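Thread: "does anyone have the structure for this chain?"

Original post by V.I.:
We have the sequence but no experimental structure in hand. Need at least a predicted one for the grant figures.
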Amino acid sequence: MMKMTPFLCSILVVGICAGTAVAAPRARSAAAAAIRQHSGSAPEKRAKLKAAREKAMKDPKVKEAAENLAQANKHFWEIVAPLLLAEDPSLQSIIDKVKDAADDTENADSGRPGLRAGRGAFLKGLASLTPEERQKLKAAQEKIKDNPDVRAARQKRQEAAQEFRKVLHDAMVAADPSIASDLEKLEQSSPDHPSA
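Reply from O.Q.:
Generated one for you, tokens below.
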């Protein structure tokens, strides 16, 4: 049986959290996504946002929220993995394939499992699958998404992700108050923002 890491949790369960196999991880902070997505903004703004995020990630409250999120991911995976495999035992090779591709991206990008399960790693993992494999994974996810245990674990995971984003936002603004308005604009443009 494969090792259940927080990184694997966030990679493979993203589709279930969003209800599809190809959705972006909700655990990603809007701030990190915005920094990467706003390549057209002024370089000094990007640099300030990145510096504030790096400083914020050292804050004990942010570290605790990140750990809580990793634990929620792990718990979610502990619920979901057996259900997926019960639906279709042949998914083991597909799960391993996604994990291996995502791990390669994770290690190259940051080496911080559980904190950097971003869209790139997840999409690279999905890209490693054939269309038939993606469909097979999506079909199994669809069958278990309404399971009460999955729903409860998903809710806990979403709450942990929301708390992580809030704590990270506050720590970034504390690190550099001059980014507050830019950060707010970027977060509002995020698909995870309540107004989006």
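V.I.: this helps a lot. The chain has a mean pLDDT of 73.
O.Q.: and DSSP finds ten helices and no strands in the chain.
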